[in-house]
Amino acid sequence: MRRFAFILTVLAVVVVVGCEDLPSDPTGQPIVGTWKASKVGDAFMVSPMEAEFQSDGDVSIELGSDTWTGTYSTSGSSASSSVREITINVTSPASKSFSGIYTISGTQMKLEVVPLPLPDNVTAPDAALGIGSTKVGGSSTNDYVSEMQKQ
Fold first, then answer.
1. 14: helix, coil or strand?
2. What is the CA radius of gyration of the chain?
3. Is the pTM of this model over 0.85?
4. What is the pLDDT of residue 54?
5. What is the dihedral of CA 60, 62, 65, 66, to 10 degrees?
6. In this predicted structure, what is the pLDDT of residue 44?
7. Strand order of the sheet with strand 139-140?
8. C-alpha dihedral, 125 to 20 to 18 to 4, nearest 10°
9. Domain range spanning residue 37?
10. What CATH number did the domain enclosing 113 receive?
11. How many domains does the chain have?
12. Which residues of the chain have pLDDT under 50?
């Protein structure tokens, strides 16, 4: 469960890089490329993490010695042009979905993702509220936020 959460956080950070208003089509977005985590969200308890977001919507995430593959899609937020929504669907080595938000500034990305279905007492991040909007037991937390650098 923690590895899935970690992967979701990494993917969310990568999506944060794509700040353009291109719904679901990642082609040409700043998130496309390889991202390495400088800080992984505490909820994931896995390190190191590196994610490659491809322009065709495929994603590959290395977590420790494991490699996760699947697809991702992004969409803009009506509340802010700098916060984008991301969905990640891991297909290998197991099926798992993540939902979250991300922001990208230059070569830095903040990715905030949570596994689906949501764990008990966890509320998904909200693009209108920005990074750090995930709630656990009703209180905001940064435990699902990862910080990444473009390689």
1. helix
2. 13
3. no
4. 96
5. -40
6. 82
7. 122-123, 135-136, 139-140
8. 40
9. 2-150
10. 2.40.128
11. 1
12. 3-25, 79-80
